[in-house]
């Protein structure tokens, strides 16, 4: 790979999901997407629920990631997340059930409102990924 590549690692509690050199990465931070190229300034951010994309030798790969943290340092990106699923690993009916469950959550305080919002965002992101 050309000198524009950098190391990327995606880790869940169960396994190392991906490790390799990539040309670029896009991660879903809690407040929006962040694009990463070689020689990016150091960064530590909280992840939201959404799509992570990387390009490897001109081919894009995608994962649904759900919360966690990402660090960019010295041309290395490390993503620590609870979930990292490829689009074909997402069960559409399960994601729809999670969305329905989130809509039905009773909100009694600010913490439960935040949990409901996060659950809805996670389910919607999975459905978008499953749709292609």
Number of helices: 2
> Considering the protein shown, what is the CATH homologous superfamily of the largest domain?
F0F1 ATP synthase delta/epsilon subunit, N-terminal
Average pLDDT, all residues: 87
* Helical content (DSSP H or I, runs of 4+): 25-40%
* Main sheet: strands, sense, barrel: 8 strands, mixed
CATH fold-level topology of the largest domain: ATP Synthase, domain 1
| CATH architecture title of the largest domain | Sandwich
- SSE string: EEEEEEEEHH
Short description:
Helices cover about 25% and strands about 45% of the residues. It contains two helices and eight strands; from the N terminus they run ββββββββαα.
Report on this model:
The chain is of the alpha+beta class and 132 residues long. The chain has 2 domains: 6-85, F0F1 ATP synthase delta/epsilon subunit, N-terminal (ATP Synthase, domain 1); 90-131. Helix content is 27%, strand content 46%. It has 2 helices and 8 strands, in the order ββββββββαα. The chain has helices spanning 92-104, 110-131; strands at 6-11, 16-22, 24-29, 32-36, 43-56, 59-73, 76-81, 84-85. Strands 1, 2, 3, 4, 5, 6, 7 and 8 form an 8-stranded mixed β-sheet that branches. The longest helix has 22 residues, at 110-131. The radius of gyration is 16 Å and the shape is globular. The two termini are 28 Å apart. The model has no long low-confidence stretch (mean pLDDT 87).
Chain-wise SSE layout:
Layout: E1 6-11, E2 16-22, E3 24-29, E4 32-36, E5 43-56, E6 59-73, E7 76-81, E8 84-85, H1 92-104, H2 110-131
Parallel strand pairs: 1-7
Antiparallel strand pairs: 1-2, 3-4, 3-5, 5-6, 6-7, 6-8
């Amino acid at each position: 790979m050309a000198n524009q590549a950098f190391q990327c690692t995606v880790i869940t509690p169960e396994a190392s999901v991906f490790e390799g050199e990539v040309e670029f990465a896009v991660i879903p931070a809690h407040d929006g997407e962040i694009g990463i190229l070689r020689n990016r300034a150091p960064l530590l951010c909280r992840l939201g629920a959404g799509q992570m994309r990387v390009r490897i030798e001109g081919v894009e790969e995608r994962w649904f990631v759900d919360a966690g943290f990402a660090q960019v340092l010295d041309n290395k990106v490390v993503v620590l997340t609870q979930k990292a699923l490829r689009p074909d690993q997402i069960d559409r009916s399960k994601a729809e059930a999670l969305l329905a469950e989130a809509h039905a959550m009773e909100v009694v305080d600010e913490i439960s409102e935040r949990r409901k919002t996060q659950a809805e965002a996670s389910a919607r992101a999975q459905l978008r990924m499953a749709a292609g």
